[in-house]
Here is the input.
Amino acid sequence: MATPVKVYGPPLSTAVSRVLACLLEKDVNFQLISVNMSKGEHKAPDFLKIQPFGQVPAFQDEEISLFESRAICRYICDKHADKGNRGLYGTNPLVKASIDQWLEAEGQNFNPPSSVLVFQLAFAPRMKIKQDPAVIKQNEEKLGKVLDVYEKRLGESRFLAGDEFSLADLSHLPNTHYLVSVTDRGELFTSRKNVGRWWGEISGRDSWKKVVEMQNQGS
Amino acid sequence: MKAGAHKQEPFLSLNPFGQVPAFEHGDLKVFESRAITQYIALEFSEKGTQLISPGSKSMATLSVWMEVEAHQYDPAASKLAWEQFYKPLYGMVTDTAAVEENEAKLAKVLDIYETRLSQSKYLAGDGFSLADMHHIPVTQILVGTQTKKLFESRPHVNAWVADITARPAYYKVLAMQKQ
Here is the structure.
């Protein structure tokens, strides 16, 4: 059995949970190493060696050390192509291009407004940081426009990149989970018929349920 | 785009977000510039410059620095380009506070680039790759603004910026822009 890969960071972090979901989909054994961010461990010199931006996650296997959750996910899919969910990142260049397209859409269009909302609505209260209503409103509007595009797309296609669940859908799980389960803005997703249907499908996957369990265990 | 063609059909069927670029190759349609460039680099890997090295390990390193460009560099850099280059072009007023804020953010990112580029000639290794290439358009613009001081004060970054903005392929792009 291969040595477990190492993932550094708390499972509550959206970017960390993105990597965990991918590892679980691909059936790749991993060891989760805690990084206590409230104590500033992510800015410690030893950690900065593996993640120079002082963020989570970081990742190591026997060959390489990586950061940036979407790069880590791509690597996992590439290296372990034959394990677990084989189609997660496509099995030919055309499918891969479509997945990459929606992975970029997630990173460039979906992530900015949704992560601001996750921070403002889910994390700021816990951290006793004051919420900014103007910022919330602005980002709700932006996210609404993105979800209108998704609504149309998901009326034509079962998943974002095609008929199969892919890394592009997976990449949306962390932020959406917080917005739907922890904040009162879930109706951004659930009021849109196709988006709601898609969210139900992708969040019901065993891999994501395991990640949520890890988050709730507070590990 | 002045006439809003990017927000209507038939363009929306090429890019449902109503943004540019969109790309077609045979039956394949792709949007998101970084997905397009990756497809081109993979599909035409035997032509022109090697922008992508095969093998999961070097692909992974490339992937890391492509994500860094997208999530760390571009947000601040494109705001600076917007404030200092595009706004004046459209007769709008530059927000100096926004420039200051984003220069501070970009400076922190460039400190990390400075360390990286002292260990490695290009971001993902010894050869020019997609990761470097993705930086060119916005960097080309910033070099013509006061933000260039952030590059000039960091020797390795400065050398790298000079290198990537002098590539013949990009001169061709600039010539197309002038048309």
